[in-house]
Specification:
Layout: E1 2-5, H1 11-21, H2 32-39, E2 41-43, H3 47-55, H4 65-74, E3 78-81, E4 87-90, H5 95-109, H6 111-116, H7 121-134, E5 141-142, H8 143-152, H9 160-171, E6 175-177, E7 186-189, H10 190-193, H11 203-218, H12 223-230, H13 234-244, E8 249-253, E9 256-260, E10 273-276, H14 281-284, H15 298-301, E11 302-304, E12 307-308, E13 311-314, E14 317-326, E15 330-337, H16 343-360, E16 363-368
Parallel strand pairs: 1-8, 15-16
Antiparallel strand pairs: 2-4, 3-4, 5-7, 6-7, 8-9, 10-13, 11-12, 13-14, 14-15
Helix pairs in contact: 11-13, 12-13
Length: about 375
């Protein structure tokens, strides 16, 4: 381990290193599967946002929405509930050991809610058996089709009950995302979608693996950031970090210790702009976001209920929000900066908008708010 000390002026290197580690400043991965494997898990409750989260981290020209759709269809990327019982994109190679690490605690944490919904261990066993039967022989079925299968098995499956029955089947490593059908999500058996998955690891080994990959893909970050992102207890997070700290660099700034890879950061172009999707890992992967987001503007990107709006990032700092409206042949992008933008910043935002249009394969109409 190498330890460095930095003062308040260390914030700029921190931002540069995060942009680099997250593959935003200089994408180095060549396929959607490579990006997801690098990041371990990508927040994915908003399907369109998660596709752009992957595309943003691919080289310009190589990233298209169609390529992400293909990866989801052929199973080189899976969408399932993993960390914090939220939707994530994960690699088939990682899905089993990740679930084995986090599922027991997530299941225990939701026990009271399950009892409120009349879901006991016997009901989950019956539900899993019915789902396995419905998806046998490689079938990929929609949520409604699986609800009908559960109802046929005399298992009420409407509203929140269905969400928890399917979510539990995901945590039990029974089902995961199937190939989308007419833009509808489907489910399939995990054993058929991830036949080469790495098996569950001993708990200590799994904690170390996850810690190392988190800090290498998102550092500099604190152990509290890591615990939040992974949904681990503070003790588990510290244990994972302790197992790999000799491979990381520690830095102290403003009384806090952060950890990161020793790889040099990619150069950050002056006045570089990026349009980040909702829930992007650049924000959601950290418990404390002050390094990239002025606390005075935090409410402007928080839509409530844990929702994080799409953000405009300039030189690594959140500078505003944006939204899109899709038309037949174009995408209308409305950018609302927190402060007036210089001409150079406006041009950088226009370039970022153009890149997003290229990803969608649509012309871009950009409007800049005051």
């Amino acid at each position: 381990m190498r330890r460095k000390t930095a003062g308040a002026a260390g914030a700029t290197p921190l931002v540069a290193r995060r942009l680099s580690a997250q593959q935003i400043a200089r994408p180095e991965r060549s396929t959607p599967a490579d990006v997801v494997s690098r990041l371990v898990a990508v927040q994915a409750q908003d399907p369109a946002a998660s596709r752009w989260a992957v595309g943003l981290r691919l080289p310009r020209g190589a990233a298209t929405e169609a390529s992400i759709d293909l990866a989801l269809a052929d199973g080189s990327i899976l969408r399932t509930h993993v960390l914090r019982w939220t939707w994530q994109l994960v690699s088939p190679a990682d899905v089993r050991w990740l679930l084995a690490l986090v599922a027991p605690r997530l299941i225990a944490r939701n026990e009271r809610r399950h009892l409120e919904l009349g879901l006991d261990p016997a009901t989950f066993r019956r539900s899993n058996a019915a789902l396995e039967k419905a998806l046998r022989d490689g079938r990929h079925l929609t949520r409604d089709e699986l609800a009908a299968a559960l109802e046929s098995a005399k298992i009420p499956a409407r509203g929140p009950r269905l969400s928890h029955l399917l979510g539990r089947a995901e945590l039990d490593a029974l089902v995961c995302s199937g190939a989308p059908r007419d833009r509808q999500a489907t489910y399939a058996l995990l054993e058929l979608r991830a036949p080469g998955a790495r098996p569950p690891l001993p708990r200590g080994e799994a904690l170390a693996e996850l810690a190392q990959r988190y800090f290498r893909s998102r550092g500099p970050a604190t152990v509290a950031d890591y615990a939040w992102w992974a949904g681990l207890t503070a003790a588990e997070a510290r244990a994972g970090l302790a197992a790999v700290e000799s491979t990381l660099v520690a830095e102290v700034a403003d009384g806090e210790t952060t950890w990161r890879s020793d790889a040099p950061p990619a150069p950050v172009a002056s006045t570089a702009a990026h349009l980040l999707p909702a829930f992007d890992e650049y924000l959601v992967a950290y418990r404390k976001r002050d390094a990239v987001l002025d606390p005075a503007h935090a409410r402007r990107i928080n839509a409530g209920g844990g929702m994080l709006d799409p953000c405009v990032v300039i030189d690594g700092r959140v500078a505003g929000v944006w939204r899109r409206t899709l038309a037949r042949r174009r995408v209308v992008i409305e950018v609302n900066p927190f402060e007036p933008l210089s001409k150079k910043e406006q041009q950088a935002v226009a370039d970022a908008a153009q890149r997003y249009g290229e990803f969608l394969g649509l012309e871009v109409a950009l409007t800049l708010g005051a």
